[in-house]
Amino acid sequence: MTITDYRAGIKLEDLNAAMEEERYIDILHTCKLCVGKNIDVEIKNNLISGELMFINSRGHYVLNNAGQSFFSALKEGYERDS
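and the corresponding structure tokens:
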């Protein structure tokens, strides 16, 4: 099960644990995210309100099909330009 499986998703506790790692903080701050806001607020303001992610019945964050397509295109663009 993964972040894209509606039965699984990722727990807020796991996201908060990831936010303790400098490399993730650097990436988010470079994108002007999580500066003065928690990761859950940023997810709600950007991914959920942008209809790229939803919260399942277990309270876990799940990337929907639109979110998967968005991040695939982002990755492809990065790989092409690298």
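(Above: one complete record from the training split.) The chain has one domain: 12-81.
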